[in-house]
Design brief:
Layout (H helix, E strand, L loop, with lengths): L2 H5 L4 H5 L10 H34 L22 H18 L5 E6 L4 H17 L2 H15 L1 E26 L6 E24 L4 E3 L14 E8 H6 L14 H8 L6 H11 L19 E8 L3 E6 L3 E7 L7 E5 L12 H27 L3 E3 L23 H4 E3 L9 H16 L3 H4 L14 H40 L5 H8 L1 E6 L5 H18 L2 H9 L6 H12 L13 H8 L3 H69 L1
Antiparallel strand pairs: 1-12, 2-3, 2-9, 4-5, 5-6, 6-7, 7-8, 10-11
Helix pairs in contact: 3-9, 3-10, 4-6, 4-10, 4-14, 10-12
Length: about 675
């Protein structure tokens, strides 16, 4: 195939056929669609965006072309003003701190029957994957692109391949001395080749100069577009490594000689000129399309990646469709962060667009003021016609002497009017207008109000009102980044993990659970601050015996591990596995066997119990003895009573007998 094939119009049959999502495209049709859609997207972007981005580079680097006084080589004032740089670099730290101030910087919410433990395992997995891909640095580049150009692009993909790895192992090889017979050891290196399966996500920042959007996209969301195209310059080595000679080959890679030939025939795009301008404005020279190497394998080839929700096509060198397959992800894997969107359009406005005029005004004003000062310090000299003064003596300098018959008439210095005496006042008002436009004020960034006075900054209430107003505008910006880029990206990352599950226990968790990810920044941080304030009261309630008893009666209890993890989340402590761990067998055995203090307490308890038992026994014996004595005393008393009764009875009988004898007498 060649360029003529790629740019040839669709045949009548191709124009009348609509492909369903499951239908395959022929390579010829895929090549035509990719290259011709790219041509239209590039033309639209060249007209509407690239010139703005080159201007943004110039403004950010505060580049001003050197000017000269007319007809001379004397330089005029050409000082740059870093207004756009100041605004961009003031917003970035606040945005990055808001996005990544927590660790982890997102929450995983369980869906359906997914447990909190499974959601936390998801959280650990995704955090490890994103940290492996240096997510903070990738997002930092996206945010900077968003602030400078209006749009920042993030991309996610998946790498699943088999890699052969060579490893050198150090070993000791025994050696016997033939003369002495002593053994010694030599250190040798053994080469070992291993094979491993790589299965991980790939996250990257895509420069806007390499990103082409469907001109009819109605919003700043990449998923709303019919197609997106990414232009890459990849090495010959990389494309050659994709070559697969199997039956089910995914890539159709040209021969190595064709690849080398394609590398020498790269086409220069408008995006390359935009990239080059950034280096040119800082007095450098760099051509992005030039390969600064003589290694043939390191030569680069233009590859266009055409992506829709149903299909992915790669075209190398504008001629070879090296990949033409359905989109296995099922979604467009690009995400956009925007600064100030324009309704109905994809490409947004950046800081350099909205305050670029103020920076140019300040530069012109300051340089005009410096030119006026230069003229005032070195005023032009008017001399009489015919007066002969050598040219080297015409320059005013200390100790200069001129000879003239009538000095007042022969030499006259031109008066320079002070036209720009209010230049710095105008400059100040221009800065205030820029601050109103972006919301990044001196009070918010430096902690002090703007020069010239501010009535609202005279009281604490006024200062707090201004600071909160600036913070709310940045809060809005952070929320847009979360909603339009980070949260969709992270939830699509969950889908990719489900599509390409890791091997091991985590694979089982992924197969049986579902989660939804949400960012912690912006307004969501208020719930964390509120929880930190109310947690002591919540903890007291959870640990109350009454609540634990009621839960136990229902067969439930509190998960203290989750409580500890919640505390660690609130404090932002990374060591989530350090506070709580399983006991070792020795610790479990020691817990079952009492310690020295417990043994002493148990011994004292036993002695106390034995003492109480002895006292009780003594009391029992004493009570028994008293009972026996009482019984004995009772029996003795009964015997005495009976004897007394018998004695009285005998006395009565003797009295009766005596009375009877007396009566007889």
């Amino acid at each position: 195939m060649n360029d003529n094939t790629a740019l040839a119009p669709l045949t009548e049959a191709e124009q009348k056929r609509i492909h369903t999502p499951e239908e395959l495209w022929t390579d010829n049709f895929a090549l035509k669609v990719t290259m011709q859609d790219f041509a239209q997207a590039e033309a639209y972007r060249t007209q509407n965006c690239d010139w703005r981005w080159r201007r943004a580079n110039q403004l950010y680097e505060a580049h001003v072309d050197q000017k000269y006084w007319t007809g001379t080589k004397q330089p005029r004032a050409s000082m740059g003003v870093f207004l756009c740089f100041e605004q961009v670099e003031s917003i970035m730290p606040k945005v990055m701190q808001a996005l990544f101030g927590d660790n982890p910087f997102f929450d995983a919410f369980p869906l359906g029957k997914t447990t909190a433990k499974q959601a936390r395992e998801w959280e650990y997995l995704l955090l490890a994957q994103m940290e492996h891909e240096h997510i903070r640095e990738k997002v930092r580049r996206v945010v900077k692109s968003m602030l400078m150009y209006g749009n920042g692009i993030l991309k996610v993909g998946w790498c699943q391949k088999e890699v052969r790895h060579q490893q050198w192992l150090s070993k000791l090889r025994p050696r016997k001395d033939p003369f002495t017979g002593q053994m010694s050891f030599d250190r040798v290196l053994d080469k070992k080749t291993t094979t491993r399966i790589e299965n991980y996500p790939e996250i990257d920042h895509v420069q806007v100069e390499d990103f082409y959007m469907d001109p009819n996209c109605p919003s700043p969301v990449c998923g709303d577009a019919r197609y997106v195209i990414e232009r890459q310059l990849v090495t010959v080595d990389y494309l050659d490594s994709l070559r697969d000679d199997g039956k089910d080959k995914a890539f159709d890679i040209p021969s190595k000689m064709d690849l080398i030939q394609l590398a020498t025939l790269k086409t220069t795009r408008q995006g390359d000129q935009t990239k080059q301008s950034g280096e040119t404005f800082r007095m450098g020279n760099w051509q992005p399309w030039v390969d600064y190497t003589v290694d043939p394998g390191a030569q680069r080839i233009e590859v266009l990646s055409y992506t829709t929700k149903e299909r992915v096509v790669w075209v190398a060198g504008g001629e070879y469709p090296i990949y033409n397959a359905p989109n296995s992800y099922g979604f467009i894997n690009y995400y956009n962060a925007y600064y100030a969107d324009v309704l109905g359009r994809f490409w947004a406005l950046g800081i350099c667009d909205v305050i670029g005029g103020e920076q140019q005004f300040q530069q012109s004003l300051r340089n005009a003021r410096l030119d006026e000062l230069s003229l005032a310090l070195h005023r032009p000299l008017i001399r009489k016609i015919g007066l002969k003064v050598p040219e080297y003596q015409r320059v005013v300098k200390p100790g200069q002497q001129w000879e003239a018959e009538n000095p007042r008439d022969d030499f006259v210095f031109l008066d320079i009017p002070n036209i720009t005496q209010n230049a710095y006042i105008e400059d100040q008002y221009s800065g205030m207008r820029a601050q109103k436009t972006t919301g990044v004020t001196d009070l918010a960034t430096l902690g002090v109000p703007s020069a010239g006075g501010n009535a609202a900054a005279r009281t604490a209430t006024g200062v707090n009102t201004q600071a909160s107003a600036s913070a709310s505008r940045q809060q809005y910006l952070v929320e847009n980044i979360e909603n339009s880029m980070l949260e969709p990206f992270m939830n699509d990352l969950v889908s990719l993990n489900i599509l390409f599950p890791p091997i091991g226990p985590m694979g089982e968790t992924i197969a049986t659970s579902r989660v939804e990810l949400s960012m912690r920044a912006s307004a969501k941080m208020a719930s964390k601050a509120s929880l930190m304030q109310t947690f002591p009261l919540i903890a007291q309630t959870l640990m109350s015996p009454g609540l634990l008893s009621d839960l136990a009666s229902q067969g439930m209890t509190i998960d203290w591990q989750e409580i500890m993890l919640a505390i660690q989340d609130m404090t932002g402590w990374r060591g989530k596995a350090d506070l709580i761990r399983k006991m070792t067998p020795e610790e479990q055995k020691a817990r079952q066997s009492p310690g020295p203090e417990n043994e002493m307490k148990m011994k004292m308890q036993q002695e106390r119990i034995m003492g109480q038992a002895a006292i009780q026994k003594h009391k029992t014996e004493t009570s028994t003895m008293e009972s026996d004595k009482q019984r004995e005393d009772g029996a003795e008393s009964q015997h005495t009573d009976s004897l007394l009764k018998m004695a009285l009875e005998l006395i009565r009988q003797k009295d009766k007998e005596k009375k009877k004898e007396d009566s007889d007498d």
